[in-house]
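Async update (no meeting this week)

Hi team, since we skipped the sync, here's where things stand on the single-chain job. The sequence we agreed to prioritize is pasted below, unchanged from the tracker. I ran it this morning and attached the output directly underneath so nobody has to dig for it. Comments welcome in thread, and please keep replies under the output.
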Amino acid sequence: MSAGPELLQSLLQTTPPPLLFKVSPLPPLSPVRRLRTRVSTAVTYRARCRRIEQRERAGRHDAHRIVTGKRRLRDYEARLAVLERCQGRCENPDCLRRELPYRTVAGEPLLEVDHVDEHASGGRDHPSAMIALCPNCHANKTRGAGKYRLTAILRRVALAAHKDLLGAS
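Output:
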């Protein structure tokens, strides 16, 4: 299904929200450097695809690994409490899009409930130590360059939101 010209035109005319941080423009690449970057990316990509296809032909692409171990059980009700507390918003105060336009198949806001301190490493499975994040903020907390700083902020936010709701009753 394609979007009609009216929809595309209205999307192009909407103004984006103001930026919450200063963006410094990257210096433009010279035509030679741009071509070199594109060629090296294409060469690397093709080489990776060839290796993947070789593994597929050799029957190694669908290899399985047996994994054994122990995982801590999570409390489903704690997850539901966090989703109720966040009221459909990302709880990261620095999120660029706290009001989420994204929805799950069931129509719920697309949020991921995360343990502020890793559950597998002993983090508490309690709403005071859990936070609802949009997928981008969750990835930033897990793999981003500033993940330790963000974790410290989210630890305070989760505890404050928890205490705020407990005091409201």
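Quick observations from my side:
The CA atoms of residues 17 and 97 lie 9 Å apart.
DSSP finds five helices and two strands in the chain.
Reply here if anything looks off.
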